[in-house]
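Reopening this ticket.

The earlier resolution said the output was attached, but the attachment link was broken on my side. Pasting everything inline this time so it's all in one place.
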Amino acid sequence: ALGESWRVEYPTYIGDTTRHHVIAFLCEFVGTFVLVMTVLNVATSKTDFVGLAIGGALAAIISVFGPTSGGAFNPAVGMMGVVLVQQGATMAALLYWISGLLGAAAATWCHVMVGRYEEGSPEVDPEVE
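Inline output:
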């Protein structure tokens, strides 16, 4: 059929090797970082396109990292999905959980650091109060 010829075969996103776990960890870390950084930036800005920005970021990271890591980008969702789908996959569940938390923490830290050095902030210009 016509629809079958356009089907793309994606690799299994959680394999049994250490290499698969490291790749999934990095994908989830970067994806969570991008998502949290987007949410923090639009939440602290004066834009009317909050939903478009978050939806666009989520669509992009799911498109890029989804076939490789499963595209959870949330520690609770990632861990629950791995535990429910792959019974006893404790290493994969732990990696999903840790990568999401580290990605969110890194994005939060970057957002705070960038915010400190915006033009007109007291840290950059002591005369501004």
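Reporter confirms the inline version is readable. The chain has a mean pLDDT of 77. Residues 79 and 93 are 5 Å apart (CA to CA).
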